[in-house]
Design goal:
The chain is an alpha/beta fold and about 130 residues long. It is built from 2 helices and 8 strands; from the N terminus they run E-H-E-E-E-E-H-E-E-E. The protein has 2 domains: about 60 residues, 2,3-Dihydroxybiphenyl 1,2-Dioxygenase, domain 1 (Roll); about 70 residues, Roll (2,3-Dihydroxybiphenyl 1,2-Dioxygenase, domain 1), CATH 3.10.180.10. This is VOC family protein.
Length: about 130
């Protein structure tokens, strides 16, 4: 089988640069490419999945959890492992994230980025 790997996840937003700036601060990623309506960021060491952001004027924020038929559904979310869930949640909020009102698990915090995409901070717990 040929070598295949996911290299980049792309998120739409009203402002690609604003959203890229948020994730650069949150993840410590570096900007790899910067165009008028598109930005690519990735880990400083170049190893791992990159994120790109595309300006989409018709972008509609997803609703999570979905409440009624017709709501723009979440199509994906990012899972971000952290060492200290409480501290990293506070840092994410300070960087511009919003804590979701519904939290389904004790070892996970669901937040929304500035464009409304849900993402999860999670911590490894002993089984």
């Amino acid at each position: 089988m040929p070598r295949v790997k996911v290299s980049t996840v792309t998120l739409d937003a009203h402002d690609a640069h604003e959203l890229a700036d948020f994730y650069v601060r949150l993840l410590g990623y570096a900007v790899r490419a910067d165009e008028p309506h598109w930005v690519l960021i990735g880990p400083p060491d170049g190893d791992g999945v990159s994120l790109s952001f595309e300006t989409e004027p018709e972008y509609v924020r997803p609703v999570w959890p979905t409440r009624k038929p017709g709501d723009q559904q979440m199509m994906l979310h990012l899972d971000i492992e952290v060492d200290d869930l409480e501290a990293e949640t506070a840092r994410a909020v300070a960087e511009g994230a919003v804590l979701a009102g519904y939290q389904p698990q004790d070892d996970v915090r669901v937040l929304f980025d500035p464009a409304g995409h849900p993402f999860c901070l999670w911590v490894e717990t002993a089984q």
